[in-house]
Amino acid sequence: MNNLQKKQLVIVINNIDGGTGTYLKQLYRLQELMPGYKIRTLCIHAPQYRSNDLPNISFFQNDSMQQEKFSLRIVTIQKYFRVAMWLQRQLKSHSPEYIISVDIYCNILVALLYLFPFNNRPKLILTTHINLKENIRHRSSRLLQSILKTLVSNLYNVADKVVAVSSDITKQHITYFGIDKTKCITIPNGVRTVGVSRVRNHTYRLVTAARLVSQKDFSTLISAVKLAAMTIPEIQLFIYGDGPERTKTERMIEENTANDSVVMKGWTQNVLREFDNADVFIFSSHREGFGYVIVEAMSQGLPVISTDTPHGPAEILNKGEFGILVPMKNPKAMSDAIIALCTDAEKYSYYSNKSLQRASFYSEDAMVQAYCHLLQETSK
Hints:
Blueprint: E1 7-13, H1 19-27, H2 30-33, E2 37-45, E3 57-61, H3 74-94, E4 98-102, H4 103-114, E5 123-128, H5 132-139, H6 142-155, E6 161-164, H7 167-175, E7 184-186, E8 205-209, H8 218-231, E9 236-240, H9 246-255, E10 262-266, H10 271-276, E11 280-283, H11 292-299, E12 304-307, H12 312-316, E13 324-326, H13 331-343, H14 345-361, H15 364-378
Parallel strand pairs: 1-2, 1-4, 2-3, 4-5, 5-6, 6-7, 8-9, 8-11, 9-10, 11-12, 12-13
Helix pairs in contact: 5-6, 8-13, 11-14
């Protein structure tokens, strides 16, 4: 079957930096399971860090700047309108059989467009990869919080299915936003590579990978590493990632006189390779929908220390069964966990094995199969 005869599956996404880019690459595997379909991606922002090797992807604009806050400013509303008109033209041109939209910005725009007539109305699947309730609360004024909650409650219900990456976010969809529970489903993100169990060696390389934004709480992480270095002077934390708070994070390192213990490495195109060279993965976020990077680290056999963030990390680590959970914004508790893993070989091997065990549950094959089944079920 040539491309002209294939049906179109359009993915609408805000950006491909970070975990959303990994998720998008995984969705492209649907073409293997559904050879009668061709995937096309409509992306709002061009990537700032990730190199793009995916076919059939169009960008609304070349700038990669994204707002950290939701806004009702005239210039912002005008931009939303321009994006909506671009999406409408693209969707009309491609006449998709399915639309998969990713997270609140794209979901609201696509759902609004979905209210207007289509020649052949596509099946609409909205996906949530963030802690939606907390994301709205932290990024909006009180007035805008109320508006966004109302929009989500009404517009998400026009979709055929609403997918969340964790069961807690699915519950949030139903109980807080009032989305029809028959439309709600949980499909966790998955990983392809599973490494081998680790044994404690004589290095003390901690690693984290995240977009440099306030919700990742690098202040707690840097303070914890500084405390741990008082007991283990050789310890080092390598931070992979970039973002709007890079300068602020560098200043935190200076102010904590932690330059010998904390190293900023910038964006990497191959985070699994960096994990392979590390000893412990550490995560300090205070707001997540899932925490895909945790599963990536676990797939390499890295023991995990994470803040007990509602929803994602707590669910991945199953309340501490598969990794060490520490209270949010508590450098001392995080430091104690670091020291324990770095000095107790038996504990280290135990959590390395637990990481591999949990990573096998989050299979990329299972994730792609679940989306394939969802699309087939939705088409009935």
